[in-house]
Amino acid sequence: MRRGRDAAPHGQGGHVMTAAIVADGVRKRYGDIQAVDGVSLHIEAGEFYGILGPNGAGKTTTLEILEGVREPDEGRIELFGKSPWPRNHELLTRIGVQFQASSFFDKLTTRETIRLFASFHRLGARQADAMLARVGLTDFGSVPADKLSGGQAQRLSIACGLVHDPEIVFLDEPTAGLDPQARRNLWDLLRDVNQEGRTVVLTTHYLDEAEILCDRVSVMEHGKVLKTGAPAALIRELDDMVRVSVESGLVAPDVLRGLLESAGVDNTIVEDDEVSLTVATHTPGPVLSILADQGALRGLEVRGATLEDVFLQLTGREYRA
User: Fold this and answer.
1) Does the predicted TM-score (pTM) go above 0.85?
2) Is residue 313 part of a domain?
3) What is the pLDDT of residue 17?
């Protein structure tokens, strides 16, 4: 059974599991840019682990160093106690990688592509075709790989990284640019991959994705890890206000502020953007009661803090190119 999102990763009997990935004081510089600045991670075997951050935070470079694709300037990296750099051929059979951008051979079909990747690991057509079925692409086996839709191409890319049955799977923004249905289909696949016992490490810009899928996350900014923890635990630490929203125009903001003050409801923020009237509060009960008395419940939405609120508090709200 899969552990809950709050649970620390443990093995049987409460003993801490063996680390699948350890990074200690990792740094990487490109000219004047410090892409990774002292990153330390401890990822347990079987964890679903997310690396989050705005553009330029160092997520992809960190992932590539963990994969053994890039050499760090400083620091220690171990996968199952072994260094991935220089390229460790013993580890290559134990890790699977899906890169941020998928690029397939122009002349190969989907089936030929997965069989080619299987051959790199001395696997036959049977294993390759079984993986194609696993990701729901059997019916597209004769389609040129470069003609697949975005979601299909991402599934093929993940299949190529899984065909040799790795113990660790690295995924760099696997659902970027996909429509909601394709994203959720990939979520189901990734959950299955993790529930089979594999360690999954992904970078993502989608905070709802990380909150749903990940056991723990690390939030990065300017090459540093700012915070690490289970999504639910990070949200609780935030102690953010609950937001109660209704349709704008049902009650005037000044009137509502007066009613809240008269009722002794302190520390509230009332905002009206002419679409929604929103009250941020630590005591939503009295706010709901007052809105109900005013007959102002149309379009009611009550939202607690999310991982997005944690992310924005840590990294700020300014635009990132």
Assistant:
1) no
2) no
3) 56
Q: What average pLDDT does this structure show over 10-23?
A: 65
Tally the domains of the chain.
2
pLDDT for 140-177, tens place per residue? Answer: 999 999 999 989 999 999 999 999 999 999 999 999 88
SS3 string, the chain, reads CCCCCCCCCECHHHCECCEEEEEEEEEEEECCEEEEEEEEEEEECCCEEEEECCCCCCHHHHHHHHHCCCCCCEEEEEECCECCCCCCHHHHCCEEEECCCCCCCCCCEHHHHHHHHHHHCCCCHHHHHHHHHHCCCHHHCCCEHHHCCHHHHHHHHHHHHHCCCCCEEEEECCCCCCCHHHHHHHHHHHHHHHHCCCEEEEEECCHHHHHHHCCEEEEEECCEEEEEECHHHHHHHHCCCEEEEEECCCCCHHHHHHHHHHCCCCCCEEEECCCEEEEEECCHHHHHHHHHHCCCCCCCEEECCCHHHHHHHHHCCCCCC
Domain extent at residue 284: 241-304
CATH of the domain at 245: 3.30.70
**312 assigned to some structural domain:** no
